Amino acid sequence: MHDAVIQFIEKKAQELEIPEPIVEFGSLQVPGQEGYSDMRRFFAGKEYVGSDMRPGLGVDLVDDMEMSHFAPSSVGTVLCLETLEHVRHPWIAMQEAYRVLKPGGLLLVSAPFRFPVHDYPGDYWRMTAEGLKILIEQAGFEEVETWDSGEEIEQSLLYPLTSFGAARKTGVPGRLTGFGRGHYFEGADAYRHSPTMRPKVVTEQGAPRSTVPIVVPLFGREDVARQMFEQLELVTSDYSLVLVDNGFDDSDLIGELDPGVLIRNDTNVGAIKAINQGLERCDSEYVAVMHADAVVFEEGWLDHVVDFMDRRPDVGLVGLAGWHTLREDGSLDFESVVMKEDLLPRSFKPTWRFTEVAVVDGFVFVMRNVGPLLDESLGIMHYYDYDLSMQFVEAGDRIYNASIDCRHLAGYGAVSSRTSKSYLAAVGGDDEEYQEQVRERFRRKWQHLLPITRGFREEAYAEKRINELQEDSATFRAAFETAFGRLEEMNAEVEARGVEIEAATGYVASLERHIEEITEYARTLEAKAQGSAGCENVAPAAPPKGLAARAMYFLATEGVKQTTRRGVSSLKRRLVKR
């Protein structure tokens, strides 16, 4: 901290309306700056919370700006002074500042440009005023102003010493944040002093963590499982495998994996019992569970989750897919999906590194190993993950979803164990009906907590969802216009054909009348010819020239039937010549 920053805050505190509560990220007064770097002296009488990643002088709350505990739209003013250079992902920090600020909330920030490398946990960035402006604007802020303080050095060049920024969050008030049935907190004070908030501890950067066991039930689908374990090895460190064999034919793969624990069942006991068998063999602080068809793409994913849970003892369960809302009948609100998966709609993808949810999906999750097991009375497979989520909720813990690239292969062409003959035989042949039965058991067990909503959908979700609907609407409109244009073309064709048919119908009717006239005339000639049949010595006359005259002649001399045959033969000869 230096004089320009002190003067910046002192001036803004006098000039601007400063909404409460005020939260300073990076409030620790390091040795040598005790009192000097204390900003709360400029905001006497206002609610002020100092937060930092380390406890110490000036710190009321240990917190991480990239993953802050503050509720959405709960903070009046955010101060971030000479701190962004120590943040690994400053763009995420600015997004967090936007998230926690109320509409109309104020951001005051400074970041060094020309300053020696210094202090904890690392020194990563230097920023110009223009660079700082881009960070703030892309986080969603409006009314953004940035500038810098200069310092003259040799050759009379002016180098910026520090960049400053001031901005406000505009828009309408955000939604209330739900923490279970009937419990909502509108402001930061109610949130901080609620039973859900607990003191936080800090893990020193770079400190080694203990090995986390990963429980994996195995049943068939050997080729998919091999892919899953190969990918797990690429992106995960400090883990051990607890494998539960429910009917897995690739013994070579199990040997290659060299699991810390291997449990073999004579028959397929189902996913729920198998996972419990694995959990009972784990005595670590954390334990992870993965399906053999889950693929995680982000390197260091387990480190990120464990680090988050270390800093957040109020969090008991973290998944890689979850839902904000579980309905009263126990079914999921699929509009509240949270999962970082490239094939899902953009609006389902989490906005922040960790997002609070009501329940997680069981295909990948990390839990605090404090005793909960899966409820085997539910059955073989379904609803165990939602039931586990409810156990943590009822115990007062919170559940989060991590923004980590992943995919559940069972949803994209891989054969699911739910289609196997042995599984279908065990559940009565109809898996959908069986799932409904399990859902009803789950509903009866947890009806005192249902419906439940945790976390929220904020401005980013609304914007993405609107864009998706607009894109869908544009696609539908284009398809409709194409179909309508084709329909108009078809109507024109039908009308043209109608005219042709009408003309053809008239022509056929005219031909029919002529045929009737010719037939009647032919009958008359035939009758006359029969009257002169006794004149046997008279030589037959030669056929006259002209089509009509010849027709009359042959009708008179050969009759209607023979004349018709003659005409057909003549027509065929003409067609062949053509």
Indicate how many domains the architecture comprises.
4
The chain-level mean pLDDT equals: 80
Query: Describe the biggest sheet?
Result: 8 strands, mixed
What is the class of the largest domain in the CATH system? Alpha Beta
Taken from the alpha-carbon principal axes, the silhouette is: elongated
**Major sheet: arrangement of strands:** 12-11-10-13-21-15-22-19
What do we call the CATH topology of the largest domain? Spore Coat Polysaccharide Biosynthesis Protein SpsA, Chain A
Report the helical percentage.
25-40%
Q: What is the CATH superfamily label of the largest domain?
A: Spore Coat Polysaccharide Biosynthesis Protein SpsA, Chain A
- Round the Cα radius of gyration to an integer and report it: 41 Å
Number of distinct helices: 14
Percent of residues in β-strands: 15-25%
Features:
578 residues, alpha/beta, Rossmann fold, Spore Coat Polysaccharide Biosynthesis Protein SpsA, Chain A, 4 domains, 8-stranded mixed sheet, 7-stranded mixed sheet, 24 strands, 37% helix, 20% strand
